[in-house]
């Protein structure tokens, strides 16, 4: 038994030493891996490289649109003058006013045509209110025009023209010869006229943006059965006027045909002369 132990003792000793070394290496690897994992966790998120590039989104600039509104409204009226007074009493409540008007009257109808200016904020409300006045609405329409680019172009043109005008004034102050001074003043006058024209267009456009336009047309149809018949005397006068007009027309027509009359007279004279020669021979 002692001999067997002496034989296996060296082998058993070597096996125990190898097992201890393997255990030490494994612990070292675990410790090393753990330290590296802690190093990764200790890195702040902002300093770690991103897998995908992140683009910063810039907020889109909101452009203020400049709009011009126009409306058309037509309705039939039962009592034309009463409705006309109603329209004019309503307008001040919406800060609106009549820009132009026209009245027409014939044998069939009487009509008012009004061009109304109203602040853009009250445009729809005034359209609805006017639509409720007449007997029935026969036509209603509206449209909106975007004049943003036109407005900005006008402002840019005016600014560039004024800058050129200032440059001309500087040259005029430095000019010494009469010829140069007259030329610069002529260019200044032309440029000033252009600037005033552009500014007038800009003011008109600003007014159209601030105040919308409503073209109002309302009418009353006349009852033909109640229409007054013309008297005998009025019919006689119209007949006389028609006959006189026809006489004047025929007279003017004859005057226009005077070349034919002259040609006919010359033809008759030639024929008489030819006949006289034939008679003598």
Automatic annotation (TrEMBL):
Transmembrane segments: 246-271
Keywords: Coiled coil, Membrane, Transmembrane, Transmembrane helix
Any coiled-coil regions, as ranges: 154-208
Residue stretches making up the DUF4349 domain: 65-270
Pfam families attached to this UniProt entry: DUF4349
Protein name: Uncharacterized protein DUF4349
Species in which this protein is naturally found: Cecembia calidifontis
């Amino acid at each position: 038994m002692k001999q067997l132990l002496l034989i296996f003792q060296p082998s058993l000793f070597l096996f125990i030493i190898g097992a201890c070394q393997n255990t030490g290496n494994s612990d070292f690897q675990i410790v090393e891996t753990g330290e590296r994992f802690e190093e990764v966790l200790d890195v702040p998120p902002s300093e770690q490289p991103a897998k995908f590039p992140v683009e910063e989104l810039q907020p889109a600039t909101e452009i203020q649109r400049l709009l011009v509104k126009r409306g058309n409204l037509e309705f039939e009226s039962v009592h034309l003058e009463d409705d006309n007074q109603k329209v004019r009493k309503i307008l001040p409540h919406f800060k609106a006013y009549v820009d132009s008007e026209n009245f027409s009257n014939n044998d069939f109808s009487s009509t008012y045509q009004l061009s109304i200016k109203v602040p853009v904020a009250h445009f729809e409300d005034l359209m609805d209110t006017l639509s409720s006045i007449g007997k029935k609405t026969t036509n209603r329409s509206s449209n909106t025009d975007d004049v943003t680019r036109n407005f900005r172009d006008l402002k840019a043109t005016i600014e560039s023209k004024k800058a050129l005008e200032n440059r001309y004034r500087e040259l005029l102050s430095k000019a010494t010869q009469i010829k140069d001074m007259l030329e610069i003043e002529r260019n200044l006058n032309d440029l000033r006229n252009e600037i005033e024209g552009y500014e007038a267009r800009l003011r008109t456009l600003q007014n159209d943006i601030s105040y919308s336009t409503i073209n109002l047309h309302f009418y009353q149809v006349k009852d033909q059965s109640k229409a007054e018949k013309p008297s005998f005397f009025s019919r006689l006068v119209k007949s006389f006027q028609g006959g006189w007009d026809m006489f004047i027309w025929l007279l003017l027509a004859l005057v226009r045909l005077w070349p034919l009359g002259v040609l006919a007279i010359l033809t008759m004279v030639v024929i008489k002369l030819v006949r006289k020669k034939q008679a003598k021979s």
